[in-house]
Amino acid sequence: MGQNILDINKSKETSVTELLETLSSSENGLSASEAQRRLEEYGYNEILEEKTSPLRKFLGYFWGPIPWMIEAAVILSAIIQRWEDFLIISVLLLLNAVVGFWQENKADNAIELLKKRMALKARVLRDNKWVEVNARDLVPGDVVRIRLGEVVPADVKLMEGGYLMVDESALTGESLPVEKHSSDIAYSGSIIQKGEMNALVVATGMNSYLGKTTKLVAGVEKKSHFQKAIVKIGDYLIVLAVLLVTLIFVVALFRHTDLLETLQFALVLTVAAIPAALPAVLSVSMAVGAIDLARKGAIVSKLVSIEEMAGMDILCSDKTGTITRNKLTLADAVPMKGSDEKDVILYAALASREEDQDPIDIAVMAGVRESEDILKSMQNYRITEFKPFDPVIKRAEATIKDSEGKQFKVAKGAPQVILEMVKNKENIAKEVEDSVNAFAEKGYRALGVARSDVEDEWSLLGLIALYDPPYEDSAETIKSAKAMNVDIKMVTGDHVAIAREISRQVDLGTNIAPASSFVDVPDSSSYDVVETADGFAQVFPEHKYCIVKLLQNKGHIVGMTGDGVNDAPALKKADAGIAVAGATDAAKSAADIVFTTPGLSTIIDAIKESRIIFQRMKSYSTYRIAETIRILFFITLSIIVFQFYPVTALMIVLLALLNDAPIMTIAYDNVKYSNMPEKWDMRTLLSMATMLGIIGVITSFGILYIGLHTFHLTHEILQSFIYLKLSVAGHLTILVARTHGPFWSVKPARPLFIAIIVTQLIATLITVYGILLPAMGWNLALFVWGYALIAFVVTDFIKVRAYKLFDHTGIIFNR
User: Fold this and answer.
1) How far are the Cα atoms of 106, 275, 361, 695, 801 from residue 688, in angstroms, in the given order?
2) What is the rounded average pLDDT of the residues 559-584?
3) Which CB contacts under 8 angstroms, 24+ apart, belong to 697-702?
4) Facing residues of 311 across strands?
5) In sequence order, what are the beta bridge partners of 164?
6) Residue 506 DSSP one-character state
7) CA of 183: how far to CAs of 157, 162, 176, 681, in Å?
């Protein structure tokens, strides 16, 4: 081959497109597909990934079990030249596609924006010059310069320079920085906290530590419970329609009815049966909820995650950065004989320099600011020389002059190192060891503090303890989540002792299971471990993924919060993946919801809001199924039993237009959220909806009887009479379906109530004054309203009794 890929990239700043063209040129002799594969090996897969065009994505919403049935209805309308039906059904189909496309495109744009904001730059040596390039353009063999405050752009082997202090918390979950020396590996995505070195790029893209974690994410597939519910509801209604349409055709054949007329009503029943607005209404409900969540600090990137959040019964929460601050804090100080706690903290502060941005120095100085006495005492001392922490000798040291001009030294560092410096180490070694062990049991990191005298002899003043504390609201948030029957399980890469102490502080329980207790053990044992544990420690990315998978296999709907790259696979696998504030790009991309405020507190608002949204979706689903059953069975039985077409095709279209389009205001309805996790209990939903539908069929035949035998209406007026009843009773059904208690137990939201009044006034006026339909006058219209209201009250009474019966017999499992 003419040129090596490394030579190509080093010779100039080359774009991905140019690289692809160069590799596939005649000189290099590679096919386009082989060139793409080679580039993918060097980390360009993200750029070269095939993108679905907006047009293809939009057209995709016209396929699926519900859209193709709607399209079949459109075709039938054209065949029999029912152009009013053709137009209305087409509009409904287009509405469903537009809403779905708009929401998904909005989510994709949000993720793309996040990726652009997180795009990294790197200084790389090209043609013996240091130039700045996009991190994604690095290849193995490049020499890069990394220094304080920068994100490591690829997996690199350190070469020239002293040492680095690297924050790997985004990768490993560990709170403390890691020392790196020449020949050590620094991982892509970690942050340099101290030092500056040259390094050799050894792995990029999918071959880096971050990339391998991303492979776990890419391999995850999950199906939404929401999507499954939509398919079940659609299948239920479509099967009903097919059976009834088949029955009508059989009867028509025996009666020698005009087949064209039969085909017209087959179309009507098809339109009535297909929940054309169901996906649109449920999507709008979730979209409105997503806007409310955004105001509360939770950005939804995948709409269906709202429904998953409502059903979540276990939340796996990453410790570092989620339950805790990911910020070291001075926890305690233990003085030795001859000194006190203030002395220990004072001299530790004198051996610290906050401007170096060392996390330990920052923690010590933050502790000092909480004591005015220590701050005043520090004014009596002047630092004449400061040696920052040296990972070789494991301590920081400073030369100090007091107000009297006397000079001495102070040092802080690893306890065993400081102990070796003091003159009476044999006498105090046991005491120091006991204190260090006591700190370790609490999950604290110990540092020794010492001072020299004028003869340069050192004395140990005491020990200080550092730890990563929980957010102030973590314990209260966890308590609130438990009150809503969500079980919290902490997941961390830290040691068991640290995890147990943090878990105790936030009232999670102290049953912390190490990864070894559920990895490479029989499924029966691992299931018991993950279900009963309060948290998990010493886990790696694949372990977090395994925890979520095991819990899902036991029937739980699992949420996962996290902020690091190591959380991304589990975030993707979880039913509701939540990236907390400050999360890495990998975590945000894998998550369904991104929090913009720190800590866990936003989770409570998200759970409440998601359960409210779920109630709205369930209310509409109940209404939609009941309405479909009512219209399907009433029309079918009228044709078969009475040989009478109760409504025209235009009336069915008007019912769909006036009832389904305004019903989208249910997305703003007032509901009471449940304190139990929600789920699609199809047995209860279909049972209640079917019962309401059957009651609607009975009341519809009642008004048909009255119109025929009491008012002796003509065929055309009777159809207007029945149409108005179907329309008014339809919207009253939503008031029945939206509550488990009496309809007045939760006041409907103003937009929903106004939509009901306005649309039914329109339905009333077009029947009273004969607009599109035969005119029947005000007397008949007022009778229909009175009849529908009485039927509404009776239906609501039966509904309340039915729910009580379901509760008593245990049919309803999720309330």
Assistant:
1) 35, 17, 64, 11, 11
2) 78
3) 697/629, 697/630, 697/633, 697/634, 697/637, 699/725, 699/729, 699/787, 699/791, 699/795, 700/630, 700/634, 700/646, 700/725, 700/726, 700/729, 701/634, 701/637, 702/787, 702/791
4) none
5) 180
6) T
7) 6, 11, 21, 58
Cα end-to-end span (Å), the chain = 68
Pairwise pLDDT comparison (464 vs 252), residue with the higher score: 464
pTM: 0.68
SS in 3 state form for 286-331? HHHHHHHHHHCCEEECCCHHHHHHHHCCEEEEEHHHHHECCCCEEE
> Alpha-carbon distance 682 to 670, whole Å?
23
Which has the closest alpha carbon to 734: 629, 631, 622, 651?
Answer: 622
Contacts of 106 (CB under 8 A, 6+ apart): none
Q: Does residue 667 carry a pLDDT above 60?
A: yes
pLDDT over 70 at 111, yes or no = no
Q: Which residues pair with 201 in a beta bridge?
A: 156
Q: 606: part of which helix (H) or strand (E)? A: helix 602-642
Specify whether the CB–CB gap between 168 and 174 falls below 8 A: yes
What burial letters (b/e) apply to 208-232, b meaning 16+ CB within 10 Å?
A: bbbbebbebbeebeeebbbeebbee
List CB contacts of 314: < 8 A, sequence separation 6 or more.
Answer: 486, 487, 488, 489, 551, 556, 557, 558, 559
Helix segments in 459-601, DSSP class H: 474-483, 496-505, 523-532, 541-553, 568-573, 585-590
Q: Are 629 and 710 in contact (CB under 8 A)?
A: no
pLDDT of 5: 34
* Count of beta carbons in the 10 Å neighbourhood of residue 704: 20
Residue 266: both structure tokens together: 């087959």
CB 123 within 8 A of CB 131: yes
Catalytic residue of the set 318, 494, 575, 592: 318
Q: Look at residue 99 in the predicted model and tell me its pLDDT.
A: 56
Q: For this structure, is 108 an active site residue? A: no
At 76, is the pLDDT very low, low, confident or very high (cuts 50, 70, 90)?
low
Place of tokens 């370790």: 440
**Tokens, residue 503:** 């878990």
Please state, in angstroms and as integers, the Cα–Cα distance from residue 520 to each residue in 389, 494, 524, 535, 756, following that order. Answer: 41, 20, 12, 18, 59
Report the DSSP beta bridge partners of residue 335.
462
Q: Which of 200, 196, 189, 195 is nearest to 158 (CA)?
A: 200
Is residue 203 a contact partner of residue 212, using CB atoms and an 8 Å limit? no
Alpha carbon distance 798, 790 (integer Å): 13
At residue 577, the 3 state secondary structure works out as strand
CA 319/CA 175 separation, integer angstroms: 10
Q: What is the DSSP pairing of strand 445-452 with strand 487-491?
A: unpaired
Residues 6+ apart with CB under 8 A from 469: 324, 325, 327, 329, 331, 505
Beta strands, E only, 403-495? 407-413, 445-452, 458-467, 487-491
Q: Which residues contact 185 (CB under 8 A, 6 or more apart)?
A: 155, 156, 157, 158, 202
In angstroms, the CA 780 to CA 786 distance is 10
